[in-house]
Amino acid sequence: MAPVNLGKQHPAAYKSVLELNKEVEESVAQAGLDPKLAELVKIRVSQLNGCAFCLRMHTRDALDKGESTDRLAVLAAWWESQYFTGQERAALALAEEVTHLAEPGRHEWDNGSLSDEQVSAISWLAIVMNAWNRIAVRSHYSVAP
């Protein structure tokens, strides 16, 4: 069976995810989170999910927003580098926890650098990014040079 493009088969469901994405982006901004941090979260979630389409898109978005190639190069091992702030480290750990569906609760990411509003915004960002990754991977979106 050929790949099925989920968005084309059920455009109303796809549109709902687009609307959720818009709401989450607004929540991230209202929580005072740096747009580059949002892109780092999107990229890290996409790395964990193996979504080439979203990795390419959000890496380009991050670069357009001024992210450095050095930080992008070490993002997959963020905890081992000194490139990321306490808040960024907390956000990345939280996004990984949401992506891996770990037991809910405050864990190593809870270093006090994220407000409750920011924890919620990053959690929603990881949730919606997981949805996009699954849509793109399941639909076999083309990722060619």
UniProtKB/TrEMBL annotation:
The lineage of its organism: Bacteria, Bacillati, Actinomycetota, Actinomycetes, Mycobacteriales. It comes from Rhodococcus zopfii. It holds the Pfam family CMD. InterPro entries: AhpD-like (IPR029032), AhpD_core (IPR004675), CMD-like (IPR003779). It comes from the Bacteria. This is Carboxymuconolactone decarboxylase family protein. Residues 21-97 form the Carboxymuconolactone decarboxylase-like domain. Gene3D superfamilies: AhpD-like (1.20.1290.10).
